[in-house]
Amino acid sequence: YCLEEGLINARSFAGVSKQMLQFDEADGAVALIDINGNSMVLGSNQAVIRLWDLSRREARSVGAAKVLRNDIDGLLDVRINTNGSKVSFLGVVGGTTDPNVWVWDVESDSINTFDISAGGRTPQATFWDSSEPKLLACESAGSIDGTVRGNEVISLYATPEDGLIVHSRFTTEPEDGPLFGVQIPYLFFAKRSEKADGTVKILAPRVLRDFQGVEEADR
Fold first, then answer.
1. Rounded CA gap, 120 and 142, in Å?
2. How far apart, in whole angstroms, are the C-alpha atoms of residue 180 and residue 177?
3. For residues 49 and 43, is the Cβ–Cβ distance under 8 A?
4. Is 171 in contact with 151 (CB distance < 8 Å)?
5. CA-to-CA distance for 195 and 102, rounded, in angstroms?
6. How far apart are CA 69 and CA 100, in angstroms?
């Protein structure tokens, strides 16, 4: 699925176009895409998101488009969870990054937020766990009086009853690199380092709180 000039072109591995996906004209052009398993979310340059089911030969639109213009002015980041039931997004309000992490619960058509602005922080990106549909990780950056602080990663549980609940939070180390993804029990950071034996490590795992020791269970 290739983002090309405001639409999605579904191509074969040989590059042959099989299907074109786009928004209605009033909803703008495709600007963002995320795929998790058989679920895909597209975000437009007019703050509209639409879901797609990829489990069949051709992508199939799921439900109606969700218009977010009453909440934000534009989209910065959009992510879908593994079963397509929740979508997280970051936005722009008044020309600056909104301090909230937003989560749209597709089934109830409700939106929950988590304000990440404490300590002068702004959200940078969100990632859903690749198998647990309720677990979301968010990386934020912060500064106070012009002094840059270390990035922080917060893991959240998205619940229908209590909204977004903090699971853990910690400040990353400079050598961690940016957050790349989450798969219980690990957070993964994009980090390129060469070991003494000449092997190159691209991703650096870090165990989530409450899962200490679980990483050894299958060894």
1. 5
2. 9
3. yes
4. yes
5. 39
6. 15
- Beta-carbon contacts of 25 under 8 Å, excluding residues fewer than 6 positions away, are none
State the amino acid at position 203 in one-letter form. L
> What is the full per-residue pLDDT of the chain (219 aa) written as tens digits?
888 878 888 888 888 888 888 888 889 999 999 999 999 999 999 999 999 999 988 899 999 999 999 999 999 999 999 999 999 999 999 999 999 999 999 999 999 999 998 878 999 999 999 999 999 999 998 876 666 677 899 999 999 889 999 998 888 877 778 888 988 888 888 876 666 665 666 777 888 876 665 555 554
The 3-state DSSP class for residue 215 equals helix
Phi/psi of residue 101, each to 5°?
-95, 125
The answer to whether 127 and 109 are in contact (CB under 8 A) is no
Residue 46, both tokens: 């007019």
Rounded CA separation 176/218 (Å):
25
Question: What single letter denotes the amino acid at residue 133?
Answer: P
* Tokens 């050894």 -> residue: 216
* SS3 call for 145: coil
SS (HEC) of 1-52: CEEECCEEEEECCCCCEEEEECCCHHHCCEEEEEEECCEEEEEECCCEEEEE
